[in-house]
């Protein structure tokens, strides 16, 4: 993010005191302006972007809340209720809930959803190459959409894993993928295989993520499918507990699976 803004002639402030040597060196090499601390950053900035580890998002907001002069944007991967709690500490009320819908790339092509009364202020960064889309009205809407999307995509991945595993053991996986591609569209086979392989190697993280999503959905419904999704990823973790290498062939992964 900083590099894109710097390239556009925007002054970027940060505070690296207490951070790792690598982080301090990276900030120096990029040419960002070093401040005394995050309170100093908040006082001097027209826009503050909070991108910290989820566990300290509320703590950071509470620490700077009385000192924020401009718009405060929370882009952390946290639940809507946590976003609301964090942003409640920003006393000037100029807050934005933002959700990054994928991996941050160098060209910032990843979509960032934004909600709240000041979301359009954050979206002005699109002039510098960002891909920000204002969705929803209330603070928490952007984070909610990200969690709802996660519920859907991880659910599809879990269903695909179970279905393709059964087909593989019956020797019908190739036929199944061809038949599904007829209804799901061109490129489905490659996407499906990618999902299965990704599910194998990221099952622990996805299982942990599903616990957060389940807690969120439980505020509105009694989730059933999500519980099955979580159970599937937990079974994958157990079935691949001693896998020691990366396979690019889903068949090799299925051969390694135990007890499923």
TrEMBL record:
Could you tell me which residue ranges the Phosphogluconate dehydrogenase NAD-binding putative C-terminal domain spans? 167-236
SUPFAM superfamilies from the UniProt entry? 6-phosphogluconate dehydrogenase C-terminal domain-like, NAD(P)-binding Rossmann-fold domains
Which Gene3D superfamilies does this one have?
Answer: N-(1-d-carboxylethyl)-l-norvaline Dehydrogenase, domain 2, NAD(P)-binding Rossmann-like Domain
Q: Which Pfam families match?
A: DUF1932
Query: Which sequence ranges form a coiled-coil region, renumbered to this chain?
Result: none
InterPro entries for the chain: 6-PGluconate_DH-like_C_sf, 6PGD_dom2, NAD(P)-bd_dom_sf, Pgluconate_DH_NAD-bd_C
Please state what the protein is called: Dehydrogenase
């Amino acid at each position: 993010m900083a590099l894109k803004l710097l390239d556009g002639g925007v002054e970027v402030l940060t505070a690296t005191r207490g951070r790792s040597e690598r982080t301090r060196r990276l900030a120096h090499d990029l040419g960002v302006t070093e401040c005394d601390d995050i309170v100093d950053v908040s006082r001097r900035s027209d826009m503050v972007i909070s991108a910290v580890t989820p566990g300290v998002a509320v703590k950071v907001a509470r620490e700077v809340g009385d000192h924020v002069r401009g718009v405060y944007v929370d882009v952390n991967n946290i639940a809507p209720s946590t976003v609301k709690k964090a942003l409640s500490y920003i006393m000037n009320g100029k807050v934005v809930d933002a959700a990054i819908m994928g991996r941050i790339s160098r060209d910032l092509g990843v979509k960032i959803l934004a909600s709240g009364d000041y979301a359009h202020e954050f979206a002005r960064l699109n002039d510098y190459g960002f891909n920000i889309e204002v969705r929803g009205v209330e603070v928490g809407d952007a984070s909610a959409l990200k969690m709802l999307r996660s519920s859907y995509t991880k659910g599809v991945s879990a269903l695909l894993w179970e279905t393709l595993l059964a087909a593989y053991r019956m020797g019908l996986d190739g036929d199944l993928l061809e038949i599904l591609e007829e209804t799901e569209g061109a490129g489905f086979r490659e996407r499906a295989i990618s999902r299965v392989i990704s599910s194998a190697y990221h099952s622990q993280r996805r299982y942990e993520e599903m616990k957060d999503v389940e807690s969120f959905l439980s505020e509105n419904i009694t989730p059933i499918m999500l519980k099955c999704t979580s159970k599937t990823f937990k079974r994958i973790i157990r079935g691949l507990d001693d896998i020691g290498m990366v396979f690019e062939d889903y068949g090799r992964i299925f051969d390694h699976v135990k007890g499923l």
